[in-house]
Amino acid sequence: MQIYWTKINKIIEETPEVKTYLLDVPEDFTWEEGSHTHLGLEGFNVGDKPNRSLVRHMSISTLPHEGAIGITTRFKEQCSEFKTILRNLEVGNEVAIFKTHSNVPLKREDKNVYLLSSGVGLATFRPLVLEYFNRADNVKHIYSLNIDSKRDFLFTNIFTSAHDKNFTAQFVDNRKDYYEEVKNLAGDKDGFFYIVGSDEFLVQNIEVLRGQGIKPEQIMLDKREKELPKFFSVDLSI
Questions:
Q1: Claim to verify: residue 128 and residue 228 sit in the same structural domain
Q2: pLDDT per residue as tens, the chain (238 positions)
Q3: Contact, 231 vs 209, CB < 8 A?
Q4: What is the pTM of this model?
Q5: DSSP state of 172
């Protein structure tokens, strides 16, 4: 396993609770849209075994052409050890990245793509939308639906409906409106539905989509293949 140590070159305060850390791109480090990486803090690999409390699985919110590795994350008032340390890091501090992989690259099969996310989960979809704007080949339309009860919506400069680009973005602040819209979107029995959020959010969305006749193979999760069965084994007697 190759570990890349790299420096923070910029910190962006997206909202009062969300920050994006822009990291220098190490030589030979590559990634694609929908990628996640493991972010390690200083000391995580000291000793016989890695200190898992100093490592987190994070989505990359940028594309390579932007010249930086973006890590976008939310900080709650009461944080884990990892988030507490990360929140106090500054430009110039080093972090480690390793085991980078994409579970959710943009599918190009001449179908509509629906991006369903909760809060900062939208960061996973930012690169997919940018990649689509760069090259729209074999994608009919992208529809993004994001729920954030605090209304601190992210990346609104990118997630803005653009009819000329066949792109629709919608933000809602409550579950009722969100799931009503998910049911409406599921009227497309041929589309691809990407979901990013907490495990509970994934299960709830899968239940709604399956209840509307959407097949498991149409649902994309940012999870390793071995993790998928637990999300699709829920009893769906809706």
A1: yes
A2: 899 999 999 999 999 999 999 999 999 999 999 999 999 999 998 888 888 999 999 999 999 999 999 999 999 888 899 999 999 999 999 999 999 998 899 999 999 999 999 999 999 999 999 999 999 999 999 999 999 988 989 999 999 999 999 999 999 999 999 999 999 999 999 999 999 999 999 999 999 999 999 999 999 998 878 888 788 875 544 3
A3: no
A4: 0.91
A5: E
CA–CA separation, 23 and 217 (whole Å): 34
Q: Could you list the residue range(s) of the whole structural domain that residue 49 is in?
A: 4-102
Fill in the amino acid letter for 18. Answer: V
Instruction: Please give the single-letter amino acid code of residue 44.
Output: F
Q: Which two tokens stand for residue 163?
A: 């009819």
Final residue before a domain boundary, out of 72, 102, 132: 102
CB contact set of 42 (below 8 Å; sequence gap of 6+): 54, 93, 94, 95
| Pair 177, 127 in one domain | yes
Answer yes or no: do 128 and 221 share one domain. yes
Asked if the structure places residue 238 within a domain, the reply is no
Q: Is residue 37 part of a domain?
A: yes
Q: Which residues of 75-94 are buried (b: 16+ CB within 10 A; e: fewer)?
A: beeeeeebeebbeebeeeee
**Contact status, residue 17 vs residue 75, Cβ threshold 8 Å:** yes
Nearest alpha-carbon partner for 42 in 34, 51, 33, 32: 51
